[in-house]
């Protein structure tokens, strides 16, 4: 019950982000998987089935991306096979952002094409994945928050 209580408390916070939601779901899934296979077999099977059904409702690439780039989580526990989903989500969001006139004007001002800007974004995500400078700096949740 503690993982459920912790998830609810975290998500009720006024500072809760999509990354926090995704992290809470991941922690809950991990806790369910830790239920002994020898004890409570029916409960374990029901819990796993129920969790998987509910997780599908929240398994959006944008949620995964928000978790991945959150400085407090930095994609901890994300499997390499999910990296393509992360890149694709970032590229789709960037394509939508390019429709915003201020962003388009900024790119034009600095002679960047839409393609160049997308390549830069994906390169930055690659650097983030490798934890290169500046993406390897420590994160202090007491000083910085994704919402500030």
In angstroms, what is the radius of gyration?
19 Å
- Tally of individual domains: 2
Return residue spans where pLDDT drops below 50 for at least 5 consecutive residues: none
Terminal Cα span: 32 Å
Question: What's the total helix number?
Answer: 7
The helix-and-strand class reads mainly alpha
Number of strands: 0
> What sort of overall outline do the alpha carbons produce when their principal axes are compared?
elongated
**Helix-strand sequence:** HHHHHHH
**Relative strand content:** under 5%
Helicity level: 55-70%
Mean pLDDT: 87
Largest sheet: none
Verbal overview:
Helix content is 63%, strand content 0%. The chain is an all-alpha fold and 148 residues long. The model has no long low-confidence stretch (mean pLDDT 87). It has 2 domains: 59 residues, no CATH class; 58 residues, no CATH class.
Task: Write a concise synopsis of the structure shown.
The chain has helices spanning 2-11, 18-33, 41-58, 61-69, 83-97, 101-109, 114-129. It has 148 residues and is mainly α.
């Amino acid at each position: 019950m503690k993982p459920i209580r912790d998830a609810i408390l975290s998500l009720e916070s006024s500072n809760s982000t999509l990354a926090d939601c995704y992290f809470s779901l991941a922690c809950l899934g991990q806790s369910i998987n830790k239920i002994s296979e020898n004890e409570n077999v029916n409960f374990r099977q029901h819990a796993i089935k129920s969790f998987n059904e509910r997780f599908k409702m929240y398994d959006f690439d944008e949620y995964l991306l928000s978790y991945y780039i959150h400085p407090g989580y930095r994609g901890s526990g994300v499997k390499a096979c999910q990296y393509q989903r992360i890149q694709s989500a970032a590229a789709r969001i960037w394509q939508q952002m390019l429709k915003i006139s201020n962003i388009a004007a900024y790119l034009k001002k600095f002679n960047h094409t839409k393609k160049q800007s997308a390549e830069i974004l994906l390169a930055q995500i690659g650097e983030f994945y490798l934890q290169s400078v500046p993406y390897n700096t420590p994160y202090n949740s007491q000083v910085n928050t994704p919402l500030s």
